[in-house]
What does this fold into?
Amino acid sequence: MLKEIWSNFNKSLEEYLYQNLPKVWEEPSILHEAMWYSLEGGKRVRPFLAYLGYRLNIEHVNEKLYDLASAIELIHTFSIVHDDLPALDNDDYRRNKLSVHKKFSESIAILTGDALFAYAFKFLNRLDKKISEIIIDALLSNGMIGGQVIDIQKNVKTFNDLQKLHYYKTGKLIEASLTAGYMLSGGEKIRTISEIGKNIGLLFQLVDDVADKNKNEETNVLKFLGYEATIEKINELKNSLQILIIENFEEGRILYDFVDFLVIGYE
It folds into this structure.
């Protein structure tokens, strides 16, 4: 059921993006081609979390939810296009294909990220200020961009340092996505949903690190906790998250299943 809901949401989101972004044949076509190339193949985890937050209160989504989801996906994609650049993470592949700077050029990749970020604000400007500010706050120096700075400085010496890096670079946008979607639907349990979002971000990173256990990266949690302790932490976090969802949200079944999927189905 979860996969079908997620797939249907992604199809609707793709259609909305297609309606609202420049087409590949519009000039400058190389920029638009690179934008669409960068967007292809994503799982849309963060936009789907906005949808899940919204669905805690309202079953049928409206255009505002797709504005929010579009902005989130463009922001996330901008971040990975820039992260892949030689000056940062220097990755040749992303989403099972060449990264944008390898497919096009470094200069086009920089401008593609800039364009994605700019169009994200076109969507955010259609939303109430309190909603858009949740997403913007996740990007600042104590958010995604600050997390990337910590990452490139290669100064992670303790588990607490690593948690701060992961929360800033990855977790804050995940938390903001779920929270903003929930607030858009009129939800009032803001502190609870923010806590759930923050812990989903932590769970996401723990599972991702286990999947990358053979990469021997300095910022992998296995370096600090080891494999068995990390698996134990994943299971504890999963159980506590699902209890929190059940206790607070009558319509939380899909979100509950999403937590399960993160642990057993994310690839």
User: Anything to note?
Assistant: Residues 159-184 form the longest helix (26 residues). The domain at 2-264 is CATH 1.10.600.10 (Farnesyl Diphosphate Synthase).
